[in-house]
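Appendix B. Chain record.
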Amino acid sequence: LGTKLFDRTKTPVVITPAGQYYVQKMKQVALAEQVIREELRTMSHPMRTFVVGIGQVRGNYWLPMVLPAFCRKYPDVHIQLMQATEDIIYSGLQQQKVDLVVGAYPTAAENLVIEELMFEKVFLAASRTFEIIPPALRGQYSFQHLYQAPPERLRDIPFIAASPGNGIYPIYEEIVRSNHLRPRRIISTNNMVTGAKLTAAGLGIQILAGVIFHQVPDVDWSQMDYFIVRGMPEQRRCLAIYHPENAKLALVKDFLAIVRERVLPECQVFNKLE
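Structure tokens predicted for this chain:
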């Protein structure tokens, strides 16, 4: 390579900055090669590869309940999971690179089948150190009974916001716009689990969905305030979307049947609306 990767004059041998850079780049090359191999396999055996687009948090919770039963029924079908932001996943569906997407997506879609799976509860959360809910009133409110926060209680407080392209980002934009908020600091992340842990650490307010409670068991949720504010919905629709002419329609239907049988009943407790 024309440069020194290891300093062998030291004991033990020490990797050089150039060596660290080389290892980092080769890991990226290996990952890219893996992606290419998956794409080639899909192209070689299109009818034997089922591509599902699902967000990281939802996928972490749903897929372990769905895939065991699905794989028993289709033991010879390859499964390719696309776990990215909603805009990337939805683009893959429109380009017919994805067989099924599950999550919160736009409903104005031509030539696509849209099935409503459930309503997902949406709320704001913050560490109690911000005192969004006055301490004297905390006993009256909970995750199931959300506090209606006056906008002035949110002013100049940091936010932990989903990145553009994430399905929750438009809700964040509307909250800030309609309540004339100017967050003192914004931390952007595509990962709701990371955001929830930062919220619990007192770094800001975050918009969360009910599924998050399954994903972050090490957070003390009792030390958080849960509330809504003007201009935000209390729920969003979780949809399944696919092409009606897809040759793998039987796989789509069976996958969704397992979701309805095994997953949705588990989600109800965290998405119940009063």
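Further analysis of this model is presented in Appendix C.
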